[in-house]
């Protein structure tokens, strides 16, 4: 009986490891409400789960979640629009479904 439990646990652990990093996906989120959600994505090698907060000046407009494309963009703020002061603040995490 113990052998079967050990084999079952090993298979479960192996399938979890083989699955890889899975990230929540939301294209447009206000507060805690997601308006455009997709199925979770699976990050490729070297990618992280990403949360991007979009600000106009100091006011947050919305958030979006997904699989990050470049690890170099993690934990950075990018200013894209000098007229309206639109900033994109990215944060990353590396455990499954960590980007809420």
TrEMBL record:
Transmembrane annotation, as ranges: none
Record flagged with keyword Secreted: yes
Subcellular location: Secreted
InterPro entries (UniProt xref): LY6_UPA_recep-like, LY6G6C, Snake_toxin-like_sf
Domain annotation UPAR/Ly6: ranges: 20-99
Keywords (A to Z) from UniProt: Disulfide bond, Secreted, Signal
One of the Pfam families matching this protein, by short name: UPAR_LY6
Signal peptide segment: 1-20
Name the UniProt record assigns to this protein: Uncharacterized protein C9orf57 homolog
Originating organism: Pogona vitticeps
Gene field: C2H9orf57
């Amino acid at each position: 009986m113990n052998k079967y439990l050990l084999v079952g646990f090993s298979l479960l652990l192996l399938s979890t490891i083989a699955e890889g990093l899975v990230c929540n996906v939301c294209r447009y989120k206000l507060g805690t409400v997601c308006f455009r959600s997709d199925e979770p994505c699976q990050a490729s090698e070297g990618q992280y789960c990403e949360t991007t907060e979009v600000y106009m000046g100091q006011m947050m407009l919305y958030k979006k979640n997904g699989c990050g494309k470049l690890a170099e963009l993690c934990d950075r703020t990018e200013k894209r629009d000098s007229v309206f002061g639109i900033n994109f603040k990215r944060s990353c995490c590396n455990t499954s479904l960590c980007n809420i």
